[in-house]
Write a sequence for this structure.
């Protein structure tokens, strides 16, 4: 979930933490160009709602309350997962799928994101 408003973040995450729920928050950061490219790949048009939100979200996520940034511009999905797991002290189980199955699963996920 993308939360870029400091007050919303404090309300939602603050309440969870007040209720003794452990919340680990990470900002998955990328360059504007990378974000636009990723959105195009999922079928977004140049002036879509998602593309128009990039500047607002990037500006909001620069607030120091969102201090744990992971620059994903040049990272693979697997390396992002490994980084978050490492920062969260989570031991990942081995991914025993073959390369074809991994690719098919990724394409299936991407197809679900396409907006027509």
């Amino acid at each position: 979930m993308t939360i870029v408003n400091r007050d919303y973040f404090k309300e939602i995450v603050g309440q969870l933490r007040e209720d003794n729920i452990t919340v680990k928050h990470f900002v998955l950061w990328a360059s504007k160009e990378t974000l636009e490219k990723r959105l195009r790949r999922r079928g977004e048009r140049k002036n879509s709602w998602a593309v128009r939100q990039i500047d607002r979200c990037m500006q909001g996520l620069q607030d120091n309350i969102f201090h744990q940034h992971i620059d994903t511009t040049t990272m693979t999905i697997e390396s992002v997962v490994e980084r978050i797991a490492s920062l969260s002290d989570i031991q990942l189980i081995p991914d025993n799928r073959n390369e074809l199955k991994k690719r098919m699963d990724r394409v299936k996920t991407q197809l679900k994101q396409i907006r027509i």
